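REQUEST ID: PR-0412
SUBMITTED BY: lab tech R.K.
PRIORITY: routine
TASK: structure prediction, single protein chain
INPUT:
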Amino acid sequence: GKALLAVSPREQLLLCSIHDFGDGNAIIWSLEMEDWHDHLLPAGHRQVRAKTHLFVTTIVQTGPSKYDIEYVLHVEAGGMLPTWITTPVTIDTVEKMFRYART
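STATUS: complete
OUTPUT:
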């Protein structure tokens, strides 16, 4: 992967679930797997492991092809990087994700 600013690529290992309520509403959540689950990652060179302490997305349909989305994320980038470096990268990534979802 390509580094953004001073932050090199990261990898994560998450257990995710989608709860689809059948009426257009859904909750998507994930749980960070522990280091002892690393054997589930592909063999070979590893990236610095980022940790998501909290990830939840709530999607509520508000009309035909219209949704309200609440996105909660608490992530630790890993490595020895201060948050003043990693926070703008995280915000930029989430904003790009929502721009992509609008198209």
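NOTES: The longest helix spans residues 83-102.
REVIEWED BY: pending
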